[in-house]
Amino acid sequence: RKQFDCNSCRKRFSVTAGTVFHDSHLPLWKWFLAAYLMTGSPEGVTANQLARSLGISYKTAWHLMHRIRAAMGSGPARGTGEARATLKGSDRPRGRVKHLSAYLDERTFLSQNRENPDLFVEMLSRLIGVGSVSYAQLIASA
Questions:
Q1: Tell me: the pLDDT tens digits for 51-96?
Q2: From 37, 59, 79, 99, which residue has the greatest number of CB atoms within 10 Å?
Q3: At residue 4, what are phi and psi to the nearest 5 degrees?
């Protein structure tokens, strides 16, 4: 891996430090392809489809998708308060409701950027600007 030295503090760092890509074992091209597939499909992509496309496990695909969804929800375009209140008041089992907010962020981001010719670039910009989300954080009780 290419690492750099900070001139002032002499610590080593990589270009992915402080981004969602930090500590990821996936090559960046798989991240970029996942983001492209998620932003380019009007119907959405399932974790199983992404796993097959990238040649990774379902668990890795699921985690990758949720890290990308975190970036989708990080900007000014977030789901409406009314929609979020509906999700919280849902009669669905807790396991299904737990991540609905992330799915809502994804749908909101994609619908608000449907006509954006620079959607993929916008998505990559958000991925660089958001910190990493660990698997343990995703599956922890809400």
A1: 999 999 999 999 899 888 888 886 654 444 444 554 455 444 444 5
A2: 79
A3: -125, 160
What's the CA gap between 85 and 24, in Å, rounded?
Answer: 33
Give, as one character, the DSSP assignment of residue 12.
E
For the residues 44-56, what does the mean pLDDT come to? 93
Contact 47, 61 (CB under 8 A): yes
Give the H or E element holding residue 102.
Answer: helix 100-112
In DSSP terms, which residues pair with 96 in a beta bridge?
none
Q: pTM of the prediction? A: 0.67
Six-digit token string for 125? 């910009």
Spatial distance between the Cα atoms of 44 and 61, rounded to a whole number of angstroms: 14
